[in-house]
């Protein structure tokens, strides 16, 4: 079927993959993105982008395309047992006037994809095997595709999600199940919902729910809970998922939340287990080997409790793009295979501890907010977590990944 040779091959056309391709293009490198799906994947409907993500989007030159999404300034957290409502200010936590913006996942993917040439994303591309070959003292990655073609790459970047083929090749331990699962969806109000741009959350024993307006007619909502007992599978049919939430898991939640769930566009509904990689696997594991590395969920799958999955993937892209791009520019617009092991090693060392701590913070955040109903857990959540710990975590989340000045 033929063999082609590429400077950089990126496996996966999600947020990390497309953003990395955009970062490399800023340096003059045309990467090839291989995506399994037939088109852009928008599973998850929407995502929260904190200021650290906007720094990355600025560096990538695409933030202006998403400027119509307005920041959330406040987070109202309702204790389902007592009815007590806590107000958490995002601006106080951030130390500035910018709260997180919740954006359509598809809008973010399209903003990134539009920066790339039409030939740089190859859809319906499935890998059957990865191997490496020594060539003139340096390593070349060889991808065998299911359709029989072979692609050789001077650099291979795995951005292929939680169940990454590339991270498995690197020898990284598989992600583990957090014991929780989450439903996500978009509610549509054709006449407008009339709600302010604030996050509303509901926390109780073993479950957490919430919603936030995306536009004046759309609301993103989620529901996470301790997963059903072993042997019980999660509903897959959208109507079944909606019914399960309304009649079982969330039946005692406030009417405003149930109304949002009832307005769901069923095509956006998903219910999936929440996975994460043990942070020590990142601290001590092989995140790169010769000319191969990983980014995004392929490197650091985490629970969504600090809304940092997509944000940290954008950081990865800018930092990885800067390391590879700088080497490319310094070597006369040539990617030198012999230098790639050292270049990727520097990227890994810059990212390793930050993402390990984000995984830890996300897990703790989920555990505290969705923990048991005893007075000790409630005290920890209501008196310590939201008043002190959450503010510290949001400050750690704030991070400037720098520019792409080539």
Protein model, in words:
Helices cover about 35% and strands about 25% of the residues. The chain has about 400 residues and is an alpha/beta fold. The strands form 3 sheets. Strands 1, 2, 7, 8, 9, 10, 16 and 17 form an 8-stranded mixed β-sheet that branches. Strands 5-4-12-13-14-11-15 form a 7-stranded mixed β-sheet, sandwiched between helices. Strand 4 and strand 5 form a beta hairpin. Residues about 370-375 have low confidence and may be disordered.
Outline type: globular
What does the average pLDDT come to? 90
Sheet having the most strands: 8 strands, mixed
Number of strands: 17
Contiguous uncertain segments of 5+ residues? 372-376
- Measured by DSSP, the beta-strand proportion falls in 25-35%
Distance between the termini: 37 Å
Count of helical regions: 11
What class do helices, strands and sheet pairing give? Answer: alpha/beta
Radius of gyration: 21 Å
> What is the ordering of alpha helices and beta strands?
EHEEHEEHEHEEEEHEEEEHHEHEEHHH
The helix fraction, in percent, is: 25-40%
């Amino acid at each position: 079927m033929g063999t082609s040779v590429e400077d950089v091959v990126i496996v996966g056309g999600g947020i990390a993959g497309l953003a990395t391709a955009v970062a490399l293009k800023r340096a003059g490198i045309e990467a090839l993105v291989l995506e399994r799906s037939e088109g852009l994947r928008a599973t998850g409907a929407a995502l929260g982008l904190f200021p650290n993500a906007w720094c990355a989007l600025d560096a990538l030159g695409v933030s202006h395309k998403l400027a119509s999404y307005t920041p959330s300034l406040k987070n109202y957290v309702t204790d389902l047992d007592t009815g007590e409502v806590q107000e958490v200010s995002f601006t106080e936590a951030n130390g500035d006037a910018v709260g997180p913006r919740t954006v359509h996942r598809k809008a973010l993917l399209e903003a990134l994809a539009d920066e790339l040439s039409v030939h740089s994303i190859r859809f319906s591309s499935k890998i059957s095997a990865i191997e490496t070959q020594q060539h003139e003292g340096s390593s070349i990655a060889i991808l065998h595709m299911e359709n029989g073609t072979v692609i050789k790459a001077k650099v291979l970047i795995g951005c292929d999600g939680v169940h990454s083929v590339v991270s498995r090749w690197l020898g990284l331990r598989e992600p583990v199940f957090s014991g929780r699962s989450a439903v996500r969806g978009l509610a549509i109000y054709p006449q407008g919902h009339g709600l302010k741009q604030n996050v509303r959350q509901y926390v109780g024993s073993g479950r957490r729910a919430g919603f936030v307006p995306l536009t004046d007619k759309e609301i993103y909502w989620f529901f996470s809970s301790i997963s059903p007992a072993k042997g019980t599978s999660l509903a897959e049919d959208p109507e079944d998922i909606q019914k399960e939430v309304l009649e079982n898991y969330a039946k005692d939640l406030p009417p405003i939340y149930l109304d949002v769930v009832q307005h769901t566009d069923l095509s956006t509904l998903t219910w999936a287990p929440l996975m994460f990689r043990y942070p020590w696997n990142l601290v001590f594991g092989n995140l790169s080997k010769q000319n191969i590395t990983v980014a995004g969920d392929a490197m650091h799958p985490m629970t969504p409790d600090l809304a940092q999955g997509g944000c940290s993937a954008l950081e990865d892209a800018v930092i990885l793009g800067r390391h590879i791009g700088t080497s490319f520019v310094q070597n006369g617009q040539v990617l030198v295979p012999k230098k790639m092991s050292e270049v990727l090693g520097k990227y890994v060392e810059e990212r390793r501890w930050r993402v390990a701590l984000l995984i830890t913070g996300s897990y703790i955040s989920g555990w505290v907010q969705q923990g048991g109903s005893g007075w000790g857990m409630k005290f920890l959540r209501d008196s310590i977590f939201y008043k002190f710990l959450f503010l510290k975590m949001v400050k750690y989340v704030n991070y400037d990944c720098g520019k792409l000045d080539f």
